[in-house]
Design goal:
The protein is of the alpha/beta class and 290 residues long. Strand 6 and strand 7 form a beta hairpin.
Length: 290
């Protein structure tokens, strides 16, 4: 089966959600929530992610997780991940209670497809479609591993290699050459496939998988929400009405005029806070979309 057909299959039974001038969606992918060990790449950005989650809950967003939310290749136990990141899952459950939580599975959490869901009356999906009554073009959302043969068809082999070969070697600075996030040549190849799929299917496509945040344009029609495992920040995509934003959340140090009591040798005070920064923005639909 070709990668085009694998991507098509992701949307065969996908739920369809509305896009209206008042809808608000936020898309996170590749959180890779782990069990708090040195290999838990999410752990360093947990505070930024939780602050972002609180913000989107407070302002009434729908939360859509675009796959690889949990790291089930390096760890085989979801219960341990939930225990370590209890505050995150507690807040996600509040999104669910308001019917504002959707989770897609990617290659690193493919096991969710056959697992008992975390929340009552909840379902994991491979793809989701967003549509507007005013514009015929669809926004299709899936993780994007379908365009990657090793990480889709042979994902169990890839999981074995990561769990028993590349994860131990990562401690010595050896990067996994099969990973789309760590291999730029592979990353570019996949992004080209995503763009081809969007053009051939006459749709907009939003994925994760490559970890490279991207805001589409009239030429590519392709978007990527990035990841939550960048060294110093997390990224996501917001859809507010017909406007789409690429957003970065990161820790900042506030400059303070208070330097303590010099004579008492008090240390200076530099408060740390989590900042939301819009990197790019554009109108999702325009007159050319009709």
């Amino acid at each position: 089966m070709s990668y085009m057909k694998r991507l098509d299959r992701a949307f065969e039974n996908a739920p369809i959600l509305p896009i209206t001038p008042n809808t608000q969606y936020v898309f996170f992918s590749d959180c890779h929530r782990g069990i708090g060990t040195n290999n838990d790449n999410f752990h360093q950005n947990a505070n930024s992610y939780f602050a972002a989650l609180q913000y989107y809950y407070q302002y009434g967003f729908h939360y859509i997780e675009v796959g690889d939310g949990d790291e089930l290749w390096e760890s085989c136990c979801l219960d341990q991940i939930v225990e370590i990141h209890e505050d995150v899952f507690s807040l996600l459950s509040q999104f669910h209670q308001k019917n504002k939580l959707y989770m897609l599975y990617g290659n690193h959490d493919m096991a969710k497809k056959n697992q008992e869901p975390l929340f009552d009356n909840f379902q994991y999906y491979e793809g989701i479609i967003l549509k507007s009554e005013n514009f015929p073009i669809e926004l299709r959302i899936t993780h994007g591993h379908q365009a990657d043969l090793l990480n889709s068809v042979f994902w169990k082999l890839a999981r074995f290699l990561v769990r028993y070969l590349w994860t131990p070697l990562e401690s010595f600075g050896v990067l996994d050459p099969t990973s789309a996030a760590k291999n730029n040549t592979k990353k570019q190849k996949l992004e080209k496939r995503y763009m081809e799929y969007a053009h051939n299917s006459n749709c907009l496509l939003l994925t994760g998988h490559t970890h490279r945040p991207t805001l589409g344009d009239s030429l590519s029609l392709y978007y990527n929400s990035g990841s939550c495992v960048h060294p110093k920040c997390i990224t996501c995509i917001e859809l507010c009405g017909y406007r789409i934003n690429l957003v970065k959340w990161h820790s900042c140090v506030e400059k303070s005029e208070h330097f303590g009591n010099i004579y008492a040798k008090c240390p200076p005070v530099y408060p740390v806070y989590i900042k939301r920064e819009v990197l790019e923005t554009e109108i999702l639909f325009n007159s050319n979309s009709n």
